[in-house]
């Protein structure tokens, strides 16, 4: 599947190695930096879910399995926050 077929309009993937002058100019644009920060935030949330909620391995395969596993991890994290606030 290609990016446009998946509904992605703007791909924000940093280049590895030395960037070309065109790529560097694109990465200095405000919109690219904003999208890059958003992407980094998502990566951080996924890492935290994996670390705190035990999402080390996804036994369910495919998109449905991924949604099920990540939804369970998010639910566990939310319940953890609720329990901490009620205890305080």
Keywords:
elongated, mainly alpha, 88 residues, 3 helices, 0% strand, single chain
List the helices and strands and how they pair.
Blueprint: H1 21-27, H2 30-53, H3 62-87
Helix pairs in contact: 2-3
Helical segment count = 3
Largest sheet report: none
- Helix share, percent: 55-70%
- In total, the number of domains comes to 1
| Principal-axis shape | elongated
Average pLDDT metric: 79
Q: Which structural class best describes the helix and strand composition?
A: mainly alpha
Strand content: under 5%
Query: Span between N and C termini?
Result: 48 Å
Our Rg estimate from Cα atoms comes to 18 Å
Plain-language structure description:
The protein has about 90 residues and is mainly alpha-helical. The protein has one domain (about 10-85). It has three helices and no strands. α2 crosses α3. The longest helix has 26 residues, at about 60-85. The chain is elongated, with a radius of gyration of 18 Å. The N and C termini lie far apart (about 50 Å).
């Amino acid at each position: 599947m290609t990016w446009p077929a998946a509904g992605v309009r703007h791909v924000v993937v940093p280049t590895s190695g030395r960037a070309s002058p065109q790529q560097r100019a694109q990465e200095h644009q405000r919109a690219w930096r904003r999208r890059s920060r958003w992407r980094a935030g998502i990566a951080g949330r996924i890492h935290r879910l994996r670390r705190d909620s035990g999402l080390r391995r996804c036994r369910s395969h495919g998109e449905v399995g991924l949604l099920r596993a990540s939804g369970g991890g998010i639910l566990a994290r939310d319940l953890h926050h609720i329990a901490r606030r009620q205890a305080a």
